Structures are given as C-alpha cells and as structure tokens.
C-alpha cells in the first residue's frame, strides 16, 4: 500500500494530511472552508484515494494561506506515498463534464513541476472560498508533488461547476497515472529516473 502522513505548521497554518493512494475513496476533510472541503472530498472520492485533511489557518485574514498550504502538504504526501514510482502508468488525461462545464486535466508524474492553468472563473467567491485560490492550490500541489499538470476549461460559465469538474478530473487523472501497470518494467522513463 502506498501511504503517507505529512504535517506542516507555520505561524499562518497547521496542516495534517494522511493519504493512501491505493484506497477506496474514503475521506475525512476539515479545513474550515466549506466549499474547499467539498472539493477535496470529490477529489478523494473520484480518485479512489483514502484521504484525511485537517487544517487550521488564519481564516480571519482570508482563505489563501490555508488553501495554498493544503496544496503544499497534499503534494508532499503524494510524492512520499508514490515512492520510487516503479511500474506506474505515469501519464493520464481526463475530461469531466459538470452540466454546461467541461474541464480537461492532463498529468505527467514526471519529477518536473509545472502548471498550465486556463480556468476563467466569473465569480470571485463560491461560499467563503476565493476562486482565484483554485490556481494557487493547483500550483502548490503540482510543484510539491513534482508533476506536470495542465488544467483547461473547454467550455462552461458557472464557477461552481467549473471548479467541481476540475477537482473530479484531477482525482481521476491522478488515479490513472499512478496505477501500477505490470507491463511497465522499472521506471517509465528512458532517463531511468522520475
């Protein structure tokens, strides 16, 4: 089982993440940000990751520090749990529709952190969640996991639908990219490392 437990405490946040990549989609999420909790729950459920996230942050300021630091710690947890990455499929692209919205997420478990994000969101907030923090989360996650991540809105207008499709697609794409393929011998790279 590929599992990890990661903690990070600063003057702004106190984050704890427990992850099982080879889980069943069970989740226990408490960040103090309702909409973000919902998105992380969808991510875990559709990625079939067992995930626990407990975050305490300076929400009296805004949600930025908490969302970004959860991305950092979650990325670290995936990096730790993925281990040597032997025999993984490595690449995946997943499309998820949510009513009028359609989002495409492409992942390369490459060891080369990069984010391309094209998610134009009309609403500034969904609940108490600032929508500009979607990209901050994705960047923190991708850079701390060490993956190449492309996220694109193909069409759609409702910010809730777009963000929800994004988190579902991210979960599904990571599930596929991290799957063990018995045909893959060793590291799936001509360089010999990821």
TrEMBL record:
It catalyses: D-erythro-1-(imidazol-4-yl)glycerol 3-phosphate = 3-(imidazol-4-yl)-2-oxopropyl phosphate + H2O. The keyword Signal does not apply. Its main location: cytoplasm. It is found in: Cytoplasm. GO terms for molecular function: imidazoleglycerol-phosphate dehydratase activity. It comes from the Bacteria. Keywords: Amino-acid biosynthesis, Cytoplasm, Histidine biosynthesis, Lyase. Pfam families: IGPD. SUPFAM superfamilies: Ribosomal protein S5 domain 2-like (SSF54211). InterPro entries: IGPD_sf (IPR038494), ImidazoleglycerolP_deHydtase (IPR000807), ImidazoleglycerP_deHydtase_CS (IPR020565), Ribosomal_Su5_D2-typ_SF (IPR020568). Pathway: Amino-acid biosynthesis; L-histidine biosynthesis; L-histidine from 5-phospho-alpha-D-ribose 1-diphosphate: step 6/9. One of its GO terms (biological process) is L-histidine biosynthetic process. HAMAP family: HisB. This is Imidazoleglycerol-phosphate dehydratase. It comes from Thermoanaerobacter thermohydrosulfuricus (Clostridium thermohydrosulfuricum). The lineage of its organism: Bacteria, Bacillati, Bacillota, Clostridia, Thermoanaerobacterales.
């Amino acid at each position: 089982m590929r599992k990890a437990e990661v903690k990070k405490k600063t003057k702004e946040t106190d984050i704890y993440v427990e992850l099982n990549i080879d889980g069943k989609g069970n989740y226990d999420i408490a960040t103090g940000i309702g909409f973000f909790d919902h998105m992380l729950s969808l991510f875990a459920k559709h990625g079939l990751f067992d995930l626990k996230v407990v975050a305490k942050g300076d929400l009296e300021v805004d949600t930025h520090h908490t969302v970004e630091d959860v991305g950092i710690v979650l990325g670290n947890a995936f990096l730790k749990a993925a281990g040597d990455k032997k025999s993984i499929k490595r690449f995946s692209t997943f499309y998820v529709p949510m009513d009028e919205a359609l989002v495409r997420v492409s992942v390369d478990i490459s060891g080369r952190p990069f984010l391309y994000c094209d998610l134009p969101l009309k609403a500034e907030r969904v609940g108490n969640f600032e929508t500009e923090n979607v990209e901050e989360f994705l960047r923190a996650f991708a850079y701390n996991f060490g993956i190449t991540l492309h996220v694109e809105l193909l069409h759609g207008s409702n910010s809730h639908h777009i963000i929800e499709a994004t988190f579902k697609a991210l979960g599904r794409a990571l599930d596929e990219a991290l799957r063990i393929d018995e045909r893959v011998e060793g590291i799936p790279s001509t360089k010999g490392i990821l």
